[in-house]
Specification:
Order of helices and strands: HHEHEHEHEHEHHEHHEHH
Shape: globular
CATH superfamily: NAD(P)-binding Rossmann-like Domain
Number of helices: 12
Strand order of the largest sheet: 3-2-1-4-5-6-7
Bound molecules: NADP nicotinamide-adenine-dinucleotide phosphate
Low-confidence stretches: 1-20
Mean pLDDT: 89
Distance between the termini: 28 Å
CATH topology: Rossmann fold
CATH class: Alpha Beta
Helix content: 40-55%
Length: about 280
């Protein structure tokens, strides 16, 4: 479902490329944040898709960037290059999420856009998946998103303006073999986005979900299992970042990246038996 709605305050703040920004902003960000300039919190900003999103926003949108990731050195490097503020930290418990939201609000006074990019993978037979890995994956990929949204949405709703962009996955739309828990976490994000949109769209808050296929990032190396399919071929993270940018500034509700992935997702929805037959033959 696409979601195209009239311009909002944040879109009117789109005044073309922001000036080249070097060096992360000082803790005085709050005092320096102009009322019309959106404050964007990006999680997963220290690597891969989140880092590419940060670069895309810094290059093309007049906004203040608050950046979360775990690795302080990589996060600082992204912040230095984008002019964002690093807010390093884990997102594995509700307390972590509330603490991040609190730091962001304390620093900037508000968060207009939440881009929830932090995530981890796990591949292999579900029957062999260590229970702790199930909990860790669900905590980062799903629970952290819900808790961050829970902490930040009320103020967006009361201002009548805001954006939440979730990084889902084609795995959540179709299911992927030997990625059962990962697929479940991403399917839950899409369902969350669809449900939340009904609730907050009438109050001026947009919810988008971006569903990439395979993306060329450290994700696969970090999960310990390389990407093993010949297709779809991994795309550069910049392509996903472009979709995220479009989701925010053009208010798109759902974006597959690349766009043709919408077809298997729709086929899975309308003719699941045919989809499974074709998937088994093409695997
Ligand atoms: N790569 C793909 O093929 C693909 C496809 C579809 C969807 N996605 C989704 O895209 C998102 C970004 O993935 P990516 O490909 O960019 O992978 P990535 O390069 O491994 O980046 C993952 C990001 O999540 C952060 N993160 C992981 N665990 C965290 C935790 N416990 N607390 C806080 N932050 C944590 C990482 O922080 P540190 O680096 O500081 O540890 C990093 O910034 C994920 O949600 C992933 O599921 C990826």
């Amino acid at each position: 479902m696409r979601d195209r709605v009239p311009s909002s305050e944040a879109e009117t703040a789109l005044v073309g490329p922001s000036p080249a920004r070097k060096g992360s902003r000082s803790p005085r960000l709050r005092a320096m944040t102009a009322p019309g300039v959106p404050v964007v919190l990006v999680t997963g900003a220290s690597s891969g898709i989140g880092a590419a999103v940060t670069r895309r926003l810094a290059a093309g949108w007049r906004c203040e960037l608050l950046l979360n990731g775990r690795d302080p050195a990589r996060l600082t490097a992204v912040a230095e290059a984008s002019g964002g503020v690093p807010l390093p930290g884990e997102l594995t418990t509700p307390e972590h999420c509330r603490a991040l939201a609190g730091r962001a609000l304390d620093l900037a006074g508000r968060v207009d856009v939440l881009i929830a990019g932090a995530g981890v993978g796990w591949a292999g037979p579900f029957t062999e998946m260590p229970p702790d890995d199930i909990d860790r994956l669900l905590a980062v990929n799903l629970a952290s998103v819900l808790h961050l949204a829970r902490a930040l949405l009320p103020a967006m709703v009361s201002r009548g303006n805001g954006y939440v962009v979730l990084i889902g996955s084609i795995a959540g739309a179709c299911g992927v073999g030997e990625e059962a828990v990962y697929s479940a976490s991403k399917a839950a994000l899409t369902a969350f986005a669809d449900s939340l949109r009904y609730e907050v769209r009438p109050k001026g808050v947009h919810v988008s979900v971006v569903l990439p296929g395979a993306v060329d990032t450290p994700f696969f190396a970090r999960r310990g299992t390389p990407y093993g399919r010949s297709r779809p071929r991994p795309i550069p993270p910049e392509q996903v970042a472009e979709a995220v940018y479009r989701a925010v500034v053009r208010h798109r509700g759902e974006l597959f990246v690349p766009a043709w992935l919408r077809l298997p997702a729709r086929l899975h929805g309308v003719a699941p038996a045919l989809f499974h037959h074709l998937a088994a033959r093409l695997a």
